[in-house]
């Protein structure tokens, strides 16, 4: 199935709005009239590489006519360039295997293929490599997500409670207050104080309370030091929490690579295992497997 959402009735409505027959649309995109009829009746889907031509023929924005979720992977880049597997393979003077394997998360592109494919797809080499990561199920935070990463005390508490306790019960406000006071060695906060910090009703906290929050939520004290813009190292730690959480929820290990009904390839599983090992070493307070 193409990487974009396809609604046959939408194609029909836009085609009729342009006063085009099925035959005329088919001629413009290089398919038969029955093929167009099957698309519009929901009996079949146009090939992904045909979607830009269909949108152009109907004089309609591609993203509006055929929307997609998230950032592009390799399949979407190729299709949006209007190229079939065979045409992409011809560009790199290879069989269809390297293109298909990379798109389905089985084997990464040879370094020699990156530049010509990026040029053919109309993207930078870094964008193509990022798309390849997404084809392999590896998600990097976007610049927008990084900029909006947890900065305030409320955001940090929310983030840690959401991502740091998958598979186990997260501490309550009472638990956190007890741990903060235990760490301080004196009654520094009440349960109400913690509730106010967690909900954002209170935004200021002393260094003692911040250190106690880090202790209570099992992270390095530096992550609660202030509300300044997060460094690259801090962002890596926050993303590590999210990544480990997604693994426990099955959002990564449950992935099935496109075109591979048996799931992720052994190579991809090995890559994920190595990455998990790296992230666990970077996460303060995360115990190893017993």
Q: What is the straight-line distance between the termini? A: 42 Å
Major sheet description: none
- Tell me the Rg in angstroms: 25 Å
Beta-strand segment tally: 0
Low-confidence stretches: 249-265, 282-290
Individual helix count: 17
Question: How does the helix and strand content classify structurally?
Answer: mainly alpha
Query: Any idea what the shape is?
Result: elongated
Brief overview:
The protein is an all-alpha fold. It is 56% helix and 0% strand. The protein has 17 helices and no strands.
Layout of helices and strands:
Elements: H1 8-17, H2 22-29, H3 33-41, H4 51-57, H5 62-65, H6 74-80, H7 85-91, H8 97-103, H9 111-121, H10 125-135, H11 143-147, H12 153-163, H13 173-184, H14 191-199, H15 207-216, H16 232-248, H17 266-282
Molecular structure report:
The chain has 290 residues and is mostly helical. 56% of the residues lie in helices and 0% in strands. The chain has 17 helices and no strands. It has helices spanning 8-17, 22-29, 33-41, 51-57, 62-65, 74-80, 85-91, 97-103, 111-121, 125-135, 143-147, 153-163, 173-184, 191-199, 207-216, 232-248, 266-282. Helix 2 (22-29) crosses helix 3 (33-41), helix 9 (111-121) crosses helix 10 and helix 13 (173-184) crosses helix 14. The radius of gyration is 25 Å and the shape is elongated. Residues 249-265 and 282-290 have low confidence and may be disordered.
Tags for this model:
mainly alpha, elongated, disordered C terminus
